[in-house]
Amino acid sequence: MVSILLIIIYLAFISLGLPDSLIGSAWPVMQSEFGVPVSYAGLITMIIACGTIISSLLSDKLTRRLGTGLVTAISVLLTAAALFGFSISHSFVWLCLWAIPYGLGAGAVDAALNNYVALHYASRHMSWLHCFWGVGAAVSPYIMSYYLTGGYGWNNGYRTIGIIQIILTVILFISLPLWKNRNAENSKEEISSKPLSLQQAVRINGVPLILVAFFSYCALEQTTMLWASSYLVQHRGVDINVAARFASLFFLGITFGRFLSGFIADRLGDKLLIRIGIFTSMAGIIFIALPVTTDVLALIGLIIVGLGCAPTYPAIIHSTPFNFGKENSQAIIGIQMASAYVGTTFMPPLFGFIAAHVSIGLYPLFLIILAILMLFMSEKLNKVVAEREAAKLQPQ
Fold it and tell me: What are the pLDDT digits (tens) for 94-140?
């Protein structure tokens, strides 16, 4: 029964990734059809991000009241409804309205599923599950391009992904009896403890450190992804097609890296995986920044940064119950998700502002600052956790 549930969770992670790439691949056609500026895509993603932040912060209360299975099913249903709403929208205003349930559904399911896996499954599954998210995010642009190149319209692309989400929603509702804690002790802890408020969670020793580390990681990942092509073309003079291809390899590096890290995650442990991931990303950034005439090192550097990012996100999430207690992990993972969305929403545009008003050549410097901040906060948290564990061993 556990294996069936794990298969369902893997499917749920694919569904998490499916909608994430749609707006980017379909927007050139959508904005032309609606007659709005290209920049209006940012308004939609901002609304979605606000929804995900709100639902992530509420995930502790929702999950304790409804259970992970029901929260997941309802969240995917909300996302499916939003995708269908997008497919029948004939004005930009309606897109903005449908973006609200889109974001609310995405944040709650992300936090609930990540916490469930962190509590009940080995570290390797967290890596592979996030690899499957990458599969979903990589597949959806191909589905959209099929409809666009075939002349079937972007609406049908959204409708198809919506149908896939509906099928998953049905599977999730049928599977609700399977969503029970595998460990009776964990179940007891979660039921007996009360939901944590934001203020209570942040007061827990080490929580501010992991929030800044997670913020830095997500800011690093999204800034690298968004501005890679522009940096290569504008600052290094790389051919546009080559730059676009290697920028996409950064994303593939993350996905393939998570597949590989799953095989070593249990052996190395979350703390070492995070450390290796950060140092690998730093090495890639240094490759990008090297002032050499050849562009090969910069292109390889992007792939290395992707490989470095691969284990970091899953390992941070999986380490949460150990770092802060199983009874607190849902609340803290929800806050971590909110911190992640803040990083992905605001830091790439901040670098865009820097690139426009100073120089896009500061791209590697911006990334290395984020990596150093992440490393500093992560290592400081390790020290806090080590001191706590040492205190437990002291005779009373």
Answer: 999 999 999 888 888 888 888 888 888 888 888 988 888 888 877 88
Are 255 and 314 in contact by the 8 Å Cβ rule? The answer is: no
d(CA 36, CA 51): 23
Burial of 265 (0-12, 13-18, 19+ CB in 10 A): buried
Read off the pLDDT of residues 27-55 as tens digits, 9 standing for 90 and up. 778 888 888 887 787 788 888 888 888 98
Co-location of 30 and 151 in the same domain:
yes
Range of the domain at 257: 201-393
- Say how many residues make up the chain: 396
Q: Which segments of 328-362 does DSSP mark as H helices, in order?
A: 329-357
Report the C-alpha gap between 297 and 301 in whole angstroms: 6
CA 14 to chain centre: 12
pTM over 0.85: no
The CATH number given to whatever domain includes residue 350 is 1.20.1250.20
